[in-house]
Design a protein that fits this description.
The chain is mostly beta strands. It has 6 helices and 21 strands. Helices cover 8% and strands 59% of the residues. β2 and β3 form a beta hairpin.
Protein backbone atom coordinates (compact mmCIF):
# COMPACT_ATOMS: atom_id res chain seq x y z
CA UNK A 1 0.00 0.00 0.00
CA UNK A 2 2.90 2.37 0.59
CA UNK A 3 5.44 1.00 -1.87
CA UNK A 4 5.58 4.28 -3.80
CA UNK A 5 6.69 6.06 -0.65
CA UNK A 6 9.48 3.79 0.51
CA UNK A 7 12.51 5.92 -0.04
CA UNK A 8 15.28 3.45 0.82
CA UNK A 9 16.17 0.29 -1.09
CA UNK A 10 15.92 -3.09 0.57
CA UNK A 11 18.94 -4.15 2.58
CA UNK A 12 19.88 -7.79 2.38
CA UNK A 13 21.95 -7.35 5.52
CA UNK A 14 18.87 -6.46 7.56
CA UNK A 15 16.14 -8.17 5.60
CA UNK A 16 13.74 -9.13 8.36
CA UNK A 17 10.30 -8.50 9.71
CA UNK A 18 10.23 -7.73 13.42
CA UNK A 19 6.59 -8.63 13.26
CA UNK A 20 7.51 -12.26 12.81
CA UNK A 21 7.53 -14.73 15.67
CA UNK A 22 11.31 -15.06 15.51
CA UNK A 23 14.14 -12.60 14.94
CA UNK A 24 16.63 -14.71 13.01
CA UNK A 25 18.02 -12.86 10.01
CA UNK A 26 20.48 -13.23 7.17
CA UNK A 27 22.57 -10.72 9.09
CA UNK A 28 22.84 -13.24 11.95
CA UNK A 29 24.03 -15.91 9.55
CA UNK A 30 26.79 -13.69 8.17
CA UNK A 31 27.73 -12.31 11.58
CA UNK A 32 28.34 -15.71 13.16
CA UNK A 33 30.02 -17.14 10.04
CA UNK A 34 32.64 -14.42 9.55
CA UNK A 35 35.83 -14.76 11.58
CA UNK A 36 37.80 -11.58 12.33
CA UNK A 37 40.45 -13.39 14.34
CA UNK A 38 41.82 -12.05 17.64
CA UNK A 39 44.02 -14.43 19.60
CA UNK A 40 47.48 -13.66 20.99
CA UNK A 41 49.19 -10.27 20.84
CA UNK A 42 51.90 -11.55 18.49
CA UNK A 43 49.27 -13.04 16.19
CA UNK A 44 47.35 -9.74 16.14
CA UNK A 45 50.47 -7.63 15.66
CA UNK A 46 51.37 -9.60 12.53
CA UNK A 47 47.89 -9.38 11.03
CA UNK A 48 47.13 -13.02 11.76
CA UNK A 49 49.44 -14.16 8.93
CA UNK A 50 50.39 -17.53 10.44
CA UNK A 51 49.17 -20.06 7.86
CA UNK A 52 52.76 -20.97 6.96
CA UNK A 53 54.54 -19.64 10.02
CA UNK A 54 52.94 -21.61 12.87
CA UNK A 55 54.41 -21.70 16.34
CA UNK A 56 51.70 -19.46 17.85
CA UNK A 57 48.67 -20.79 19.70
CA UNK A 58 46.24 -18.68 17.66
CA UNK A 59 47.46 -20.37 14.48
CA UNK A 60 45.74 -23.56 15.64
CA UNK A 61 42.38 -21.96 14.73
CA UNK A 62 43.67 -21.25 11.21
CA UNK A 63 46.26 -23.86 10.20
CA UNK A 64 46.54 -26.70 12.74
CA UNK A 65 49.93 -27.65 11.29
CA UNK A 66 51.30 -24.74 13.31
CA UNK A 67 51.34 -27.14 16.28
CA UNK A 68 54.14 -29.12 14.63
CA UNK A 69 56.52 -26.14 14.65
CA UNK A 70 56.68 -26.04 18.46
CA UNK A 71 59.91 -27.26 20.08
CA UNK A 72 58.97 -26.56 23.72
CA UNK A 73 56.02 -26.69 26.05
CA UNK A 74 54.21 -23.36 26.14
CA UNK A 75 51.43 -21.60 28.06
CA UNK A 76 49.85 -18.31 26.97
CA UNK A 77 47.19 -15.99 28.35
CA UNK A 78 45.85 -12.90 26.53
CA UNK A 79 43.62 -10.21 28.06
CA UNK A 80 42.26 -7.61 25.64
CA UNK A 81 40.48 -4.26 25.69
CA UNK A 82 38.23 -3.33 22.76
CA UNK A 83 37.05 0.24 22.23
CA UNK A 84 34.54 1.22 19.56
CA UNK A 85 33.79 4.84 18.65
CA UNK A 86 30.79 5.32 16.40
CA UNK A 87 29.50 8.35 14.53
CA UNK A 88 25.85 7.94 13.58
CA UNK A 89 24.00 10.12 11.05
CA UNK A 90 20.21 10.25 11.18
CA UNK A 91 17.75 12.78 9.77
CA UNK A 92 20.53 15.28 9.15
CA UNK A 93 22.03 15.05 12.66
CA UNK A 94 25.25 13.39 13.80
CA UNK A 95 25.87 11.81 17.21
CA UNK A 96 29.01 10.18 18.61
CA UNK A 97 29.14 7.31 21.09
CA UNK A 98 31.81 4.93 22.34
CA UNK A 99 31.95 1.64 24.19
CA UNK A 100 34.79 -0.22 25.86
CA UNK A 101 34.92 -3.88 26.77
CA UNK A 102 37.42 -6.10 28.55
CA UNK A 103 37.80 -9.70 27.44
CA UNK A 104 40.18 -12.56 26.69
CA UNK A 105 41.57 -13.24 23.25
CA UNK A 106 43.41 -16.43 24.07
CA UNK A 107 44.42 -18.95 26.69
CA UNK A 108 46.22 -22.10 25.72
CA UNK A 109 48.72 -24.83 26.50
CA UNK A 110 50.97 -26.73 24.09
CA UNK A 111 52.71 -29.98 24.91
CA UNK A 112 55.63 -31.50 22.99
CA UNK A 113 56.72 -35.12 22.92
CA UNK A 114 60.17 -35.49 21.32
CA UNK A 115 60.88 -38.90 19.86
CA UNK A 116 64.67 -38.41 19.96
CA UNK A 117 64.98 -38.95 16.21
CA UNK A 118 66.28 -36.47 13.65
CA UNK A 119 64.55 -38.22 10.73
CA UNK A 120 60.96 -39.35 10.41
CA UNK A 121 58.66 -38.29 13.23
CA UNK A 122 60.79 -35.86 15.23
CA UNK A 123 58.02 -34.83 17.63
CA UNK A 124 54.34 -35.35 18.32
CA UNK A 125 52.62 -32.27 19.74
CA UNK A 126 49.24 -31.37 21.18
CA UNK A 127 47.46 -28.16 22.14
CA UNK A 128 44.40 -27.34 24.25
CA UNK A 129 42.93 -23.90 24.79
CA UNK A 130 40.77 -21.02 23.61
CA UNK A 131 40.94 -18.46 20.79
CA UNK A 132 38.50 -15.64 20.11
CA UNK A 133 37.27 -15.65 16.50
CA UNK A 134 34.93 -12.64 16.49
CA UNK A 135 34.15 -9.73 18.81
CA UNK A 136 30.82 -7.87 18.81
CA UNK A 137 31.08 -4.59 20.69
CA UNK A 138 29.34 -1.35 19.83
CA UNK A 139 27.08 1.44 20.94
CA UNK A 140 25.50 4.32 19.08
CA UNK A 141 22.48 6.57 19.12
CA UNK A 142 20.64 8.87 16.75
CA UNK A 143 18.33 11.80 17.18
CA UNK A 144 16.42 13.90 14.70
CA UNK A 145 13.19 15.53 13.67
CA UNK A 146 10.99 14.67 10.73
CA UNK A 147 8.30 16.91 9.30
CA UNK A 148 4.95 16.40 7.62
CA UNK A 149 6.86 16.28 4.33
CA UNK A 150 8.40 12.95 5.33
CA UNK A 151 7.21 10.14 3.06
CA UNK A 152 6.68 7.39 5.64
CA UNK A 153 6.80 6.73 9.39
CA UNK A 154 7.91 3.72 11.41
CA UNK A 155 4.32 3.20 12.54
CA UNK A 156 3.37 3.20 8.88
CA UNK A 157 5.73 0.29 8.21
CA UNK A 158 4.42 -1.55 11.27
CA UNK A 159 0.86 -1.03 10.04
CA UNK A 160 1.79 -2.41 6.64
CA UNK A 161 3.49 -5.38 8.28
CA UNK A 162 0.20 -6.31 9.99
CA UNK A 163 -0.97 -7.60 6.61
CA UNK A 164 -4.46 -8.81 5.76
CA UNK A 165 -5.26 -10.11 9.25
CA UNK A 166 -8.46 -9.44 11.13
CA UNK A 167 -8.17 -7.33 14.31
CA UNK A 168 -9.38 -10.25 16.43
CA UNK A 169 -6.49 -12.39 15.24
CA UNK A 170 -3.93 -9.57 15.24
CA UNK A 171 -4.44 -8.63 18.86
CA UNK A 172 -3.50 -12.14 20.00
CA UNK A 173 -0.39 -12.57 17.85
CA UNK A 174 3.16 -12.53 19.17
CA UNK A 175 4.36 -9.75 16.89
CA UNK A 176 5.31 -6.08 16.88
CA UNK A 177 2.16 -5.17 14.86
CA UNK A 178 0.16 -6.92 17.59
CA UNK A 179 1.86 -4.82 20.28
CA UNK A 180 1.23 -1.66 18.24
CA UNK A 181 -2.44 -2.56 17.74
CA UNK A 182 -2.96 -3.31 21.43
CA UNK A 183 -1.42 0.05 22.40
CA UNK A 184 -3.48 2.13 19.91
CA UNK A 185 -0.56 2.88 17.60
CA UNK A 186 -2.09 1.27 14.52
CA UNK A 187 -5.74 0.85 13.65
CA UNK A 188 -7.74 -0.97 11.04
CA UNK A 189 -9.13 1.15 8.19
CA UNK A 190 -11.11 -1.35 6.20
CA UNK A 191 -11.68 -5.00 5.59
CA UNK A 192 -11.82 -7.64 4.57
CA UNK A 193 -9.34 -7.43 2.96
CA UNK A 194 -7.97 -5.71 6.06
CA UNK A 195 -5.73 -2.66 5.86
CA UNK A 196 -4.10 -0.82 8.77
CA UNK A 197 -2.81 2.72 9.28
CA UNK A 198 -0.29 4.14 11.77
CA UNK A 199 -1.30 6.70 14.40
CA UNK A 200 1.24 9.18 13.01
CA UNK A 201 -0.01 9.12 9.43
CA UNK A 202 -2.97 10.02 7.26
CA UNK A 203 -3.74 9.48 3.60
CA UNK A 204 -5.34 11.17 0.63
CA UNK A 205 -5.67 10.49 -3.05
CA UNK A 206 -1.89 10.73 -3.48
CA UNK A 207 -1.07 8.23 -0.76
CA UNK A 208 0.10 8.19 2.86
CA UNK A 209 1.84 11.04 4.67
CA UNK A 210 3.00 12.06 8.14
CA UNK A 211 0.48 14.29 9.91
CA UNK A 212 2.97 16.49 11.79
CA UNK A 213 6.52 16.93 13.04
CA UNK A 214 8.05 14.15 15.14
CA UNK A 215 11.13 13.96 17.36
CA UNK A 216 12.98 10.65 16.94
CA UNK A 217 15.42 8.94 19.32
CA UNK A 218 17.28 5.71 18.69
CA UNK A 219 19.75 3.82 20.88
CA UNK A 220 21.60 0.55 20.23
CA UNK A 221 24.01 -1.40 22.43
CA UNK A 222 25.70 -4.67 21.39
CA UNK A 223 28.06 -7.10 23.12
CA UNK A 224 29.09 -10.63 22.26
CA UNK A 225 31.70 -12.87 20.72
CA UNK A 226 32.45 -16.15 19.01
CA UNK A 227 35.11 -18.11 20.86
CA UNK A 228 36.65 -21.43 19.92
CA UNK A 229 37.94 -24.14 22.23
CA UNK A 230 40.62 -25.95 20.26
CA UNK A 231 41.89 -29.51 20.65
CA UNK A 232 44.84 -29.95 18.31
CA UNK A 233 47.25 -32.75 17.53
CA UNK A 234 50.07 -32.76 15.02
CA UNK A 235 53.70 -33.44 14.44
CA UNK A 236 57.05 -32.66 12.88
CA UNK A 237 58.50 -34.92 10.19
CA UNK A 238 62.25 -34.50 9.63
CA UNK A 239 62.02 -30.74 10.31
CA UNK A 240 60.64 -30.45 6.77
CA UNK A 241 56.97 -31.30 6.99
CA UNK A 242 54.53 -30.33 9.71
CA UNK A 243 50.94 -31.54 9.99
CA UNK A 244 48.01 -31.02 12.30
CA UNK A 245 44.29 -31.42 12.94
CA UNK A 246 42.05 -29.30 15.16
CA UNK A 247 38.66 -30.06 16.62
CA UNK A 248 37.03 -26.68 17.16
CA UNK A 249 34.15 -26.30 19.60
CA UNK A 250 32.67 -22.83 19.34
CA UNK A 251 30.79 -20.87 21.96
CA UNK A 252 28.52 -18.16 20.53
CA UNK A 253 27.04 -15.25 22.47
CA UNK A 254 25.35 -12.12 21.15
CA UNK A 255 23.24 -9.57 23.02
CA UNK A 256 21.57 -6.60 21.36
CA UNK A 257 19.41 -3.93 23.01
CA UNK A 258 17.53 -1.34 20.96
CA UNK A 259 15.22 1.48 21.92
CA UNK A 260 13.32 3.63 19.45
CA UNK A 261 10.86 6.42 20.21
CA UNK A 262 8.80 9.00 18.38
CA UNK A 263 7.24 12.01 20.12
CA UNK A 264 4.85 14.53 18.63
CA UNK A 265 6.31 18.04 18.54
CA UNK A 266 2.73 19.39 18.59
CA UNK A 267 0.15 16.76 19.60
CA UNK A 268 -2.65 18.82 18.04
CA UNK A 269 -1.24 17.88 14.63
CA UNK A 270 -2.28 14.31 15.46
CA UNK A 271 -5.71 15.08 16.87
CA UNK A 272 -7.33 12.53 14.54
CA UNK A 273 -5.55 9.59 16.20
CA UNK A 274 -4.75 11.16 19.58
CA UNK A 275 -1.05 10.26 19.21
CA UNK A 276 1.46 11.82 21.65
CA UNK A 277 4.40 9.41 21.81
CA UNK A 278 5.58 5.81 21.70
CA UNK A 279 8.70 3.80 22.61
CA UNK A 280 9.65 0.36 21.37
CA UNK A 281 12.31 -1.64 23.23
CA UNK A 282 13.90 -4.82 21.91
CA UNK A 283 16.30 -7.18 23.63
CA UNK A 284 17.69 -10.08 21.57
CA UNK A 285 20.01 -12.63 23.18
CA UNK A 286 21.55 -15.37 21.05
CA UNK A 287 23.57 -18.21 22.52
CA UNK A 288 24.72 -21.51 21.20
CA UNK A 289 27.53 -23.79 20.16
CA UNK A 290 29.26 -24.88 16.97
CA UNK A 291 31.67 -27.59 15.89
CA UNK A 292 34.13 -27.97 13.03
CA UNK A 293 37.29 -29.78 11.98
CA UNK A 294 40.43 -28.19 10.56
CA UNK A 295 43.30 -29.87 8.71
CA UNK A 296 46.59 -28.34 7.68
CA UNK A 297 50.15 -28.82 6.53
CA UNK A 298 53.35 -26.76 6.44
CA UNK A 299 56.29 -27.64 4.23
CA UNK A 300 59.83 -26.28 4.44
CA UNK A 301 61.48 -26.88 1.03
CA UNK A 302 64.71 -25.20 2.17
CA UNK A 303 66.00 -23.23 5.12
CA UNK A 304 64.06 -20.02 5.65
CA UNK A 305 61.02 -20.73 3.47
CA UNK A 306 57.78 -22.26 4.73
CA UNK A 307 54.65 -22.95 2.69
CA UNK A 308 51.34 -23.69 4.36
CA UNK A 309 47.85 -24.83 3.37
CA UNK A 310 44.68 -25.60 5.32
CA UNK A 311 41.01 -26.44 4.99
CA UNK A 312 38.11 -26.04 7.45
CA UNK A 313 34.92 -28.04 7.29
CA UNK A 314 31.68 -26.07 7.57
CA UNK A 315 30.91 -25.03 11.15
CA UNK A 316 27.64 -26.56 12.29
CA UNK A 317 25.97 -24.22 14.80
CA UNK A 318 23.01 -24.83 17.11
CA UNK A 319 21.57 -21.56 18.40
CA UNK A 320 18.85 -20.35 20.74
CA UNK A 321 17.35 -16.91 20.22
CA UNK A 322 15.48 -15.29 23.13
CA UNK A 323 13.73 -12.11 21.96
CA UNK A 324 11.88 -9.59 24.13
CA UNK A 325 9.70 -6.86 22.61
CA UNK A 326 7.91 -4.10 24.50
CA UNK A 327 5.92 -1.07 23.38
CA UNK A 328 4.69 1.82 25.55
CA UNK A 329 2.44 4.46 24.06
CA UNK A 330 0.75 7.70 24.95
CA UNK A 331 -2.41 8.01 22.90
CA UNK A 332 -5.55 9.90 23.91
CA UNK A 333 -8.63 7.72 23.60
CA UNK A 334 -12.26 8.37 24.46
CA UNK A 335 -12.80 5.47 26.83
CA UNK A 336 -9.57 3.58 27.64
CA UNK A 337 -7.28 6.27 29.05
CA UNK A 338 -3.99 7.64 27.72
CA UNK A 339 -1.04 5.40 28.64
CA UNK A 340 -0.71 1.83 27.34
CA UNK A 341 1.86 -0.94 27.25
CA UNK A 342 2.24 -4.47 25.92
CA UNK A 343 5.10 -6.95 25.57
CA UNK A 344 6.00 -10.50 24.65
CA UNK A 345 8.96 -12.88 24.82
CA UNK A 346 9.80 -15.54 22.27
CA UNK A 347 12.37 -18.35 22.47
CA UNK A 348 13.42 -19.99 19.23
CA UNK A 349 15.95 -22.70 18.32
CA UNK A 350 17.58 -22.81 14.90
CA UNK A 351 20.75 -23.85 13.07
CA UNK A 352 23.35 -22.17 10.89
CA UNK A 353 25.84 -24.00 8.72
CA UNK A 354 28.79 -21.65 8.21
CA UNK A 355 30.75 -22.11 4.97
CA UNK A 356 33.81 -24.21 4.18
CA UNK A 357 37.12 -22.28 4.37
CA UNK A 358 40.49 -22.84 2.81
CA UNK A 359 43.77 -20.97 2.75
CA UNK A 360 47.42 -20.93 1.79
CA UNK A 361 50.42 -19.03 3.08
CA UNK A 362 54.10 -18.39 2.63
CA UNK A 363 56.62 -17.25 5.22
CA UNK A 364 60.33 -16.50 4.98
CA UNK A 365 62.66 -16.17 7.94
CA UNK A 366 65.89 -14.23 7.55
CA UNK A 367 67.95 -16.23 10.00
CA UNK A 368 67.08 -15.22 13.54
CA UNK A 369 66.82 -11.54 12.62
CA UNK A 370 63.50 -11.07 10.78
CA UNK A 371 60.58 -12.77 9.09
CA UNK A 372 57.83 -11.95 6.60
CA UNK A 373 54.56 -13.86 6.21
CA UNK A 374 51.58 -13.63 3.82
CA UNK A 375 48.25 -15.51 3.91
CA UNK A 376 45.36 -15.90 1.51
CA UNK A 377 42.00 -17.24 2.69
CA UNK A 378 38.90 -18.03 0.61
CA UNK A 379 35.35 -18.20 1.94
CA UNK A 380 32.17 -18.66 -0.12
CA UNK A 381 29.39 -17.00 1.89
CA UNK A 382 26.75 -18.04 -0.63
CA UNK A 383 27.08 -21.49 0.92
CA UNK A 384 25.69 -20.39 4.32
CA UNK A 385 22.48 -22.20 5.21
CA UNK A 386 19.91 -21.68 7.96
CA UNK A 387 17.50 -24.33 9.24
CA UNK A 388 14.54 -24.03 11.58
CA UNK A 389 13.47 -26.18 14.48
CA UNK A 390 10.10 -27.11 13.00
CA UNK A 391 10.90 -28.03 9.43
CA UNK A 392 14.00 -28.03 7.27
CA UNK A 393 12.77 -25.52 4.69
CA UNK A 394 11.68 -22.88 7.18
CA UNK A 395 14.43 -20.54 5.94
CA UNK A 396 14.14 -21.53 2.28
CA UNK A 397 13.63 -17.93 1.14
CA UNK A 398 16.58 -16.64 3.18
CA UNK A 399 18.81 -19.45 1.92
CA UNK A 400 17.88 -18.63 -1.65
CA UNK A 401 18.75 -14.95 -1.11
CA UNK A 402 22.12 -15.87 0.37
CA UNK A 403 22.80 -18.26 -2.50
CA UNK A 404 21.97 -15.56 -5.06
CA UNK A 405 23.33 -12.41 -3.39
CA UNK A 406 26.26 -13.37 -1.16
CA UNK A 407 29.58 -14.08 -2.80
CA UNK A 408 32.98 -15.71 -2.57
CA UNK A 409 35.44 -13.55 -0.62
CA UNK A 410 39.22 -13.28 -0.56
CA UNK A 411 40.93 -12.39 2.71
CA UNK A 412 44.57 -11.27 2.87
CA UNK A 413 46.81 -11.19 5.94
CA UNK A 414 50.38 -9.83 5.99
CA UNK A 415 52.83 -9.72 8.90
CA UNK A 416 56.47 -8.90 9.61
CA UNK A 417 58.78 -9.17 12.60
CA UNK A 418 62.26 -7.85 13.35
CA UNK A 419 64.19 -9.23 16.33
CA UNK A 420 66.60 -7.00 18.21
CA UNK A 421 68.08 -9.32 20.79
CA UNK A 422 65.39 -10.05 23.37
CA UNK A 423 63.02 -7.47 21.86
CA UNK A 424 60.88 -7.96 18.75
CA UNK A 425 59.15 -5.27 16.68
CA UNK A 426 56.09 -6.35 14.68
CA UNK A 427 53.61 -4.96 12.20
CA UNK A 428 50.71 -6.34 10.21
CA UNK A 429 47.70 -5.76 8.00
CA UNK A 430 44.55 -7.82 7.46
CA UNK A 431 41.93 -7.36 4.75
CA UNK A 432 38.56 -9.08 5.11
CA UNK A 433 36.46 -8.74 1.97
CA UNK A 434 32.76 -7.99 2.13
CA UNK A 435 30.43 -10.88 1.24
CA UNK A 436 28.20 -8.37 -0.59
CA UNK A 437 29.58 -5.01 -1.73
CA UNK A 438 26.16 -3.35 -1.78
CA UNK A 439 25.18 -4.03 1.81
CA UNK A 440 28.39 -4.89 3.69
CA UNK A 441 31.78 -3.22 3.85
CA UNK A 442 35.34 -4.48 3.57
CA UNK A 443 37.32 -4.47 6.79
CA UNK A 444 40.91 -3.25 6.97
CA UNK A 445 42.82 -3.91 10.18
CA UNK A 446 46.22 -2.33 10.84
CA UNK A 447 48.37 -3.47 13.75
CA UNK A 448 51.73 -2.97 15.45
CA UNK A 449 53.34 -4.44 18.52
CA UNK A 450 56.38 -5.21 20.63
CA UNK A 451 57.55 -8.42 22.26
CA UNK A 452 60.08 -9.33 24.92
CA UNK A 453 61.41 -12.84 25.58
CA UNK A 454 64.19 -13.81 27.98
CA UNK A 455 66.31 -16.91 28.09
CA UNK A 456 64.41 -18.21 31.10
CA UNK A 457 61.35 -18.87 28.95
CA UNK A 458 59.17 -15.92 30.01
CA UNK A 459 57.77 -13.69 27.27
CA UNK A 460 55.38 -10.76 27.09
CA UNK A 461 53.84 -9.26 23.94
CA UNK A 462 51.82 -6.09 23.50
CA UNK A 463 49.84 -4.98 20.44
CA UNK A 464 47.63 -2.14 19.29
CA UNK A 465 45.35 -2.74 16.32
CA UNK A 466 42.63 -0.67 14.72
CA UNK A 467 39.97 -0.86 12.05
CA UNK A 468 39.90 2.76 10.81
CA UNK A 469 36.47 2.90 9.20
CA UNK A 470 33.81 0.24 9.48
CA UNK A 471 30.61 1.54 7.88
CA UNK A 472 27.13 0.13 8.19
CA UNK A 473 23.50 1.12 7.65
CA UNK A 474 20.82 0.11 10.13
CA UNK A 475 17.10 -0.07 9.38
CA UNK A 476 14.81 1.07 12.19
CA UNK A 477 12.01 -1.25 11.19
CA UNK A 478 12.17 -3.76 8.39
CA UNK A 479 14.29 -3.53 5.30
CA UNK A 480 12.79 -0.37 3.82
CA UNK A 481 12.21 1.95 6.79
CA UNK A 482 14.27 4.96 7.82
CA UNK A 483 17.94 4.18 8.26
CA UNK A 484 20.86 5.28 10.42
CA UNK A 485 24.26 5.47 8.73
CA UNK A 486 27.18 4.63 11.02
CA UNK A 487 30.94 4.93 10.76
CA UNK A 488 32.83 3.03 13.46
CA UNK A 489 36.48 3.15 14.52
CA UNK A 490 37.45 -0.07 16.32
CA UNK A 491 40.67 -0.23 18.34
CA UNK A 492 42.11 -3.04 20.45
CA UNK A 493 44.84 -3.26 23.05
CA UNK A 494 46.16 -6.80 23.45
CA UNK A 495 48.63 -8.17 26.00
CA UNK A 496 49.95 -11.74 26.07
CA UNK A 497 51.84 -13.32 28.95
CA UNK A 498 53.56 -16.63 28.31
CA UNK A 499 56.09 -19.22 29.42
CA UNK A 500 58.12 -21.75 27.47
CA UNK A 501 59.65 -24.67 29.31
Amino acid sequence: MKNNYKWMVASLALLFSTGAANAQTIDDAVRFSQNIYEGTARFQAMGGAFAALGGDFSSLSINPAGIGVYRNFEWTFTPTVTITSTEASYLGNTAKDSRGRFGFGNMGFVGVYNTGQSKGLVSFNYGVGYNKLANFTGRFSGQGRSTSASPATVLGYIAEDAGDVSPDILQDQYSVPSLAYNTYLIDVMSGPPYEYIGATEDHDALGYFQMGALNHNYYRDVVGNVGEYVFTVGGNVSDKFYFGMTLGLQGIFYSQYESYSETAVDPTDFATSGFHAFTQQTQIDVSGAGVNLKFGAIYRPFAGLRLGAYIHTPTWMWLTDESFYKINSEVETLDDGRFFGDEYTNVYDYRINAPFKWGVGAAYTFGKVALLSVDYEGVDYSMIRMYGRDYRNEFAEDNEKMRDDLSYTSNIRVGAEVRLGEVSVRGGYAFYQSPDKEFYYDQNIISAGLGYANKGGFFIDGTYSFNPSYKYNYALYGANSQRIETDTFISKIILTLGFRF
